[in-house]
Amino acid sequence: MMLTQSFMQSFLSKAFNIPLQYVVPKQGNWFNAQDSGKEGFKVDTWCAFRISNAKPRTLPMYVNLSDKIGNESVVPMISNVDVQLVGLYAEYGVQSMAHWNQRADLSLALLPSGMFIFPDGLGQYSVIDFAQDGANSVLSYNARFRIFWNSEIATPQTVLQVVNLPSGITVLTSGYVTVTN
Predict the structure, then answer these.
(1) Segment (H or E) for 25
(2) What tens digit of pLDDT does each residue of 22-52 get?
């Protein structure tokens, strides 16, 4: 399963117990939770996030989909996800990250997709002043975690068995090279 913004939004909503509409992409023009909404309602805690990178860990590999026609090209990936919590329960929320690997609900949310969160650095955070659109500054609790996931693309292609190169060189995908002259 691919690591997408919508998947991460849903996951963080569950992890921090924040309504889905208050877990938003981290960009300045998206949402200012410091503004009062309808009839003076103001969000007590909100989360901004960004999947900041994706690093392939191996070359692509083919996986045979026994229940479907064709194959899947799979690349194991590791990504960093930055989170920023602002509001009344932000400090509690960011500190709760140190316990994520003990939470069965989060493990079960990641399990069907084959994802997992690395424990190293989980729970480490920093605090900075946060001001958006000229509003009064508040404290922002910022953290980062690493997540393993698989980039998967269905393809009608199959595993390449043999490559015949000029000059009589044959390369098998098993890694063997034969030379015939």
Answers:
(1) strand 23-25
(2) 999 887 666 666 665 555 567 789 999 999 9
Lowest-pLDDT range of 27-36, 73-82, 145-154: 27-36
Give pLDDT tens digits for 91-147: 999 999 999 999 999 999 999 888 999 999 999 999 998 876 666 678 899 999 999
φ, ψ of residue 119 to 5 degrees: the values are -75, -20
Contacts with 77 (C-beta within 8 Å, 6 or more apart), sequence order: 3, 54, 55, 56, 57, 148, 149, 150, 151
Please, is 159 exposed, middle or buried when counting C-beta atoms within 10 Å of its C-beta (0-12, 13-18, 19+)?
exposed
Structure tokens at 150: 């698989």
Give yes or no for a contact between 83 and 142, defined as CB atoms under 8 angstroms apart: yes
CA–CA distance, 47 with 20 (Å, rounded to integer): 10
Rounded Cα–Cα distance for residues 169 and 181 (Å) = 8
Give the residue extent of every domain in the chain.
5-179
- Give the residues across from 146 on adjacent strands: 80
pLDDT score for 68: 60
β-strand 71-87 against 61-64: which pairing, if any?
antiparallel
